[in-house]
Amino acid sequence: MGKSQKPALALVCLLLGVSLVGCDDGRAGAENAAKQLASAIEALDVGSVAFEGKDSGAANEQLKAVFKDLEPARPSVDAGEVRLESDLATVPLDYSWKIGTGEWKYTTSAQLKKSGDKWLTVWNPATLAPGLTEDEIIGASTQAPARADILGAGDVPLVTSRLVVNVGIDKSLLSPEDVGSSATALALLVGADPAAYAQQVQAAGAEAFITAIVLRQDGRTVTEGQIAAIPGARAIPDSMPLAPTRTFARALLGSVSEASAEQIEGSGGALKPGDSTGTGGLQQRYDAQLRGTDGVEVFAETPGLTVEEQEALPNGPRRLLFQVPARAGTPLKTTLDPSLQLLAEGVLAKIGPASAIVALRPSTGAVLAAASGPGSNGYDTALLGQYAPGSIFKIVDSLAMIRNGMTPDSMVDCPPTLTVDGRTFKNAEGYPASSLGSVILRDAFAHSCNTAFINARETVGQPQLESAATALGIAVPAPSLGAAAFLGSVPGTATGTEHAASMIGQGKVLLSPLAAAVMAGSVAKGDVLSPQLVLNPDAGVEAPAGGSSATASVPAAPQTATPSGSPTETGATPTSSADAPATAAGPPVTAAEAAALADMMRAVVTSGHAGFLASVPGAPVGAKTGTAEFGTDNPPKTHAWIVAVHGDLAVAVFVEDGGFGATTSGPLLAEFLTAAG
């Protein structure tokens, strides 16, 4: 009975005095059955649905088998308008699936048959997916796009796909009694732990290939012949996203590897087993941008067929139902100069303690090199280190003093010692006696007179120090950098010995090597410098949860400096970036102020501690050395610092347990500047 007959039927029922329920054309029952079917399919459980021609349990098992490859996705299913024809009803079912980044929508038709006072669903696999036959199931496959590159200055590839070989044991080529000896021999060849690798190989399946090491194809010393000489050993060619060398900016860039269970669980469905993802550094921070999105194909196929049977099918083994094309990742553009980065890493290669070299271009703020030495043990000392800066902080002191009306030629008092609230401060060992007493500020700066700058505490309050620091681009966030970084912490309030210690870059004053380079770069620029590393932080994708924004929290530093109790200087305890002010506390450094600071930095080379930089070719070098005590040893250990400007280049060199800035970090700086040209 058609829909147009329903009002007439209702009128007849009323005239006869019969209830509508008793005189129902069956539509209500059919509609209820259709809704129940849609809800059951949506839940992927039709065990409660009554079928015509199929046991409910068997239908439920078949449904689960049909959609198994799409797990954990579930469809949204809506029943459309029921069409009645006597004891038969037809209802459209509108499906919607979230598949990858796409939405698979389709409509099928379900048939209902009235049996007594019940409506049964006529079993038909095509109700589940378009054209599905009794023997078919739904399959799905993903196609991962190639990971995008990380680029350096001038869009030179830094991290790109490079040829590698997976060296390992193929157990299918060995008898059980030979597995242990082959695994041990291969581990010894490639430098892996023999016992651990042999155990791993023994525990793997009989047909497994177990990788011992992944070697770069370019320049590898383990040869094909050496590998082939070991029974069961193989070298399988592959490619991986890699930097130019194993150590190249590793702490900054991060690495790429197969996603761990923890990463998959925390990805909100973005990662699945077998996916590659970034770990640490920029690779992790911009993983979504670099990874792109997988392509997905959904198809109908008949499982269990032999290769011959699949080839005999007229339309092939798979019938495509839905497709989401893969979207390639977007390359991440950075300012890193590969030659300067390699140079910085080479200069630090033999330094035992944690160390760093950061080089910036003052005119643009571009970070050209951010190298952390081998002693940093994988930590990004260059950008995240938190250390007392010692006397390089006298650049900040000097700006505050200039803002109080002084000039490089103003007279200051530099006594051998100075007592503040019962605590005695003195100058560093070897301070020239000729620069004691009443000297000009330029001379006190060039020879790094601690007592002269501590004496200035009477006219330079702690808030002025903080203001001068922010005027030089430090102790503030780094919103344009595009990477996690620490730009320093300078307390806005301090009195007594704490304020005195701040005047010589100790107490609670902290800088990173990046911050030190920014401070020097602001002098060279004649304006506050805002460092930039990532040029397209928002390209390609929305920011992933947890951070692809330009600012980030700063991890705790791996070392903690504690007050030394030294009469010369005190140490400091690292603090988080939350201690830095959100905005600059004072106006940026002016060109005139920067010129005065540059004059004093040049004096460090012409008449002070850094005379060894006078021979650096090219533009005149200006510098400031720094030594900061830390720890509880007696005598205390010291951080060695030096910052310099050289044309359109600002550089900071840091060695954590390095003695004096002039004697340890200074020669490293000279080597870097000379080679940089």
Automatic annotation (TrEMBL):
Keywords: Membrane, Signal. Residues 543-587 are annotated as: Disordered. Residues 57-135 form the NTF2-like N-terminal transpeptidase domain. It is found in: Membrane. Residues 356-672 form the Penicillin-binding protein transpeptidase domain. GO terms for biological process: cell wall organization; response to antibiotic. The keyword 4Fe-4S does not apply. Residues 572-587 have a biased composition (Low complexity). It comes from the Bacteria. GO terms for cellular component: plasma membrane. InterPro entries: Beta-lactam/transpept (IPR050515), Beta-lactam/transpept-like (IPR012338), MecA_N (IPR007887), PBP_dimer (IPR005311), PBP_dimer_sf (IPR036138), PCN-bd_Tpept (IPR001460). GO terms for molecular function: penicillin binding; peptidoglycan L,D-transpeptidase activity. Residues 1-23 form the signal peptide. Residues 559-571 have a biased composition (Polar residues). This is Penicillin-binding protein.
